[in-house]
Amino acid sequence: MEGAAEQATEQRDLSSEASIALVESREAIAVTEPVEELPLDLKAPELYINRELSHLQFNIRVLEQALDESHPLMERLMFLLIFSSNLDEFFEIRVAELMAQLKYGRESVGPDALHPQAVMNRIGEICNAQVERQYKILNETIFPQLENENIHFQRRRDWTDEQKEWIRVFFEEKVQPVVSPIGLDPSHPFPRLVNKSLNFIVELDGKDAFGRESGLAIIPAPRSLPRLIRLPDNLCDGGDNLIFLSSIIHEFADEMFPGMKVEGCYQFRITRNADLTFDSEEVEDLARTLRGELHSRKYGAAVRLEVDKRTPENLIRFLLREFSLDEAHTYRVDGPVNLTRMMALRDLVDCKHLCWKPFTPGMSGRYKQKNIFDVLRQKDQLLHHPFESFSPVVDLLRQAAKDPKVLAIKQTLYRTGVNSDIVDALVDAARSGKEVTVVIELRARFDEESNLQLASRLQEAGALVVYGVVDFKTHAKMMLVVRREEGKLVRYAHLGTGNYHSGTARLYTDYSYMTSDADVGEDVHKIFQQLTGMGKILRLKKLHNAPFTLHSRMIEMIEREARHGKHGHIIVKINGLTEPQLIRALYQASQKGVKIELIVRGMCRLRPGIEGISENISVRSIIGRFLEHTRVYYFGNKGKPDVLCSSADWMERNMLNRVETGFPLTGKLAERVKSDLDLYLADNSRSWMLHSDGSYTLNKPEEGEELISAQETLLSQFGS
To answer: Was 508 annotated as part of a binding site?
Structure first.
């Protein structure tokens, strides 16, 4: 493995700090050494990258953005913090699952055949190295550059007397009244600490008022307190001056234990298993079951301990025993253990010049001047968010809510939020007497509580709310409006690749397709029938849906391109590629000479560039200002291409265990999507190429070649 990484280092010009860091990442993430002669058995484990390690590789690409000086400084900090947020979820879900497998003796292996313990070992090596890099970037690059921009994080040793006095008052009035220090003794056992909460372990000397002498205490930092506090300008020499809550607790820890001496105070944070599991056969009321499970998420089994690197080893060992963890799950960090909460910085300082320039999504005049139903009767519409506004989608629902000709509205909601324009329009429609049916996926991970509140709000307004199918998450993005026109019922449909959320529509790239096509409307109606009622699989005319036809249709279309041989062409843009049957089909098509270009943002189990197997396959990942979220499938078909957009990635869960939709585009809409794909394939500034060893390198323009960023190009075309 090391030899392969060294060879890769010699072959590539990696001169910048970011590139050097990338080489380290490649050494860490490579799963197997390149093999000269691989078997032609397409199920051979050597042909597959481990899912978890590929997921980590995506997080590393996110961290790399913190070193990219073409990004504004505040955005670089945000990428560094997003790395923390992503890693939190990785441990809460993926690592937790691996640890549970090992604990209960139910180990399972994927197509790569790596045993869970081997995967855990690699995860520990990679994460320790990358977390160390993260804090080094923060301390040695980001903080100094923020200092140069007059944004200061004041350390305790630098506090002036006036600042200390203000901080003391803040502690006495805002902190001390809500903090509950816990001395540890037989009647005060180690407390049950909340997932991802900031805590301190304190070494004490002396006896308390009751004569107890335990020597240790825990201070949980209340989540109601901000982690960053801005000092008043009149106490500072200029600029923006901030202090961490952890600094305040360190400074005044003595005052929480009167008469005792604090020998040491060290911050730590525990990450717990946050996945919700229940036996679907025993569920009678999904909403009630979820309400009962949500509380347990805060107190699942511990999976990771983060501690200040200055914490004495005896205290670390004590914490590990209390959380039933071992050294392999310990991360010693050089700075705050709760970096994600630093995202509040953007709202505490005047930093517009350090952020991306604001933009206004494009909006065609046709949506401003006409009734949207008139627009859709004339021709289908395709919007590319965030470059084009999400407003027409909201307007379709708003107009439907008020239009006396509209009889019924049906919609799926996955991640929307309780208070949104979409939900307001559905509430208005229900209150005005229209038949409103909403399929809410309660199990949208980490949005369960919000979705329960959303369901209650819609039910109170008179909408019919259902929760889909217990064993199959409803991930499809569909809206159906039924309108009476000239004595006939006409269906208007919206299908999308992203969520019905105005906020993420400005942050994620997604397609919205709106149509009055009768066949599409009928298909959407049938899918809603499957979700709200019971019955056999209904045959669809134009759409493909998981878990019934989408997967098999993808296999068929790949095999059709394989029959075209060297004249075949496949382009797929998705967020994840892990489903083994689809990967094997792509390998077989590559062996037939088909040109296969994959744009996979995150996890990818497929190994490109293997002679005799995947040398005709390229895989790239786009990481930029916006989160790439579109799912597009293009099949050349010898000049008669099929173009589909979808809510589904090429992963087992999407194809086999979720309700998803794939919708075809034709004519100019298909041509437009193909043009977008070509632009992404030409990107030489934000795209990363996957190599057969599981590593990635950043694409750069050749000498004299134009610099191309797909996102920036689209933003300049549509936004303002």
So the answer is: yes
